[in-house]
Specification:
About 65% of the residues lie in helices and about 5% in strands. The protein has 15 helices and 4 strands. It has a 4-stranded mixed β-sheet with strand order 3-2-1-4, with helices on both faces. The protein is elongated. The two termini are about 55 Å apart.
Length: about 375
């Protein structure tokens, strides 16, 4: 069981963040044996496919350079041209094989772990220069596994090579009795097939190494329960910080709400437990808007601000509770409360007219007939 520096067992699967961070650092499963297998098989396949053309081109190149005339041999300029032409022929002959090797050299690594470019993994690590750390790595379990893989690879390739050479012994001996051109082509074919069979022996090593690399990478990324909790706190926010943020948001919302009370048309109270502040602006909306609401201490504060700014305060427990529970701040009241609120606003406007000396004093019992069934229990 993997164990962290703190002594806790790493029993938890890595989180998505842990996997992303590890990938950014280049810590993904890679198999050198799989890469070697891909390069060897691809190179042998390319040699079998283009080996005949390569052998013919090389023979033509040798024939051209071994049959130079005396005039060419004594002319430095002509020798330079022959050297350039020979180089072009050689490059053109091996180019298909090199392209195949390039492709498989890219496909091999990305077949396990995917495409990854991690500049951070190329940064120098001075801890690797510590001789004690180097000795520790030399005698680690990883070094032992690499040694066993190297020995296994050697013996597997050796056994396959002995079997292939024994099987093709007659063809190898017959090459000595063949014409030169045919012998060269035959040699290329034998080398290609024998190398392919020997490289296929690496398939056993790769089949063992890939699961080992996946397991070791997973074990390396396992986390302790404490690491999971700490990462959750870092990503989601620590509870005390989140609580402080919510508290600040509530305080800001309350300050904004309190600053809007002086613009209200009326304050409707419970009378002591609830208070709501309404404003009606015909130019902005078709219904009154709730500017502020609160219970207990906040309700008391709303009434205090209303008294300071001479805003009309009316007691209507049922209506106050209904608005408090059915309407959010800065939202219009629901349609079911239109009639009751309209009667309240009409009564407030009559009081304003009376105070301005342009009307008679309104009678609350007559001019404020709020239905008694508006109460909404909490």
């Amino acid at each position: 069981m993997a164990e962290s520096e703190s002594g806790q067992d790493k029993t938890e699967e890595p989180t998505d963040k842990k996997l992303r961070d590890a990938r950014e650092k280049g810590e993904v499963a890679r198999s050198k044996e799989l890469n070697t297998l891909a390069v060897m098989v691809g190179g042998c396949g390319a040699l079998l496919a283009y080996g005949g053309h390569l052998a013919q081109t090389l023979m033509d190149l040798m024939r051209m350079n071994f049959s130079l005339s005396r005039e060419v041999l004594t002319d430095e300029r002509q020798m330079g041209l022959f050297l350039l032409a020979s180089g072009k022929l050689a490059i053109a002959a091996v180019q298909p094989i090199l392209l195949v090797l390039l492709v498989v050299a890219i496909i091999g690594p990305i077949s396990l772990g995917g495409w990854l470019f991690a500049p951070g993994s190329m940064a120098p690590k001075f801890s690797r220069m510590n001789p004690l750390s180097g000795i520790k790595r030399m005698f680690s379990m990883h070094a032992l596994s690499e040694l066993l893989k190297a020995l296994g690879k050697f013996f597997v390739v050796l056994l396959v090579a002995l079997f292939v050479l024994y099987k093709d012994r007659d063809d190898l001996l017959s090459i000595a009795h063949e014409p030169l051109e045919k012998a060269i082509t035959h040699c290329v074919q034998l080398v290609g097939w024998n190398a392919l069979w020997m490289s296929m022996g690496l398939l056993i090593i790769a089949a063992v190494d890939v699961p080992i690399q996946l397991y070791q990478t997973r074990q390396k990324l396992l986390m302790t329960k404490q690491e999971v909790r700490d990462e959750h706190k870092d990503s989601e926010g620590r509870p005390e910080v989140k609580q402080r943020i919510r508290q600040m948001q509530r305080e800001m919302s309350q300050r904004r709400m309190m600053s809007a009370i002086p613009t209200a048309d009326v304050i409707i109270t419970n009378p002591t437990h609830y208070a709501v502040a309404l404003k009606y602006d015909p130019e902005k909306g078709s219904a009154p808007v709730l500017l502020a609401k609160g219970a207990d201490f906040i309700a008391l504060k709303i009434r205090e601000i209303a008294n300071e700014h001479n805003i009309q305060i009316l007691e209507s427990p049922a209506l106050a509770r209904s608005i408090y529970y059915s309407t959010e701040l800065e939202q219009q009241i629901p349609a079911g409360l239109y009639l009751a609120v309209a009667q309240v606003l009409a009564y407030v406007y009559q009081i304003r007219q009376y105070r301005a000396g342009r009307g008679k004093r309104p009678n609350p019992l007559k001019d404020l007939p709020i239905p008694p069934d508006l109460r909404r229990d909490s």
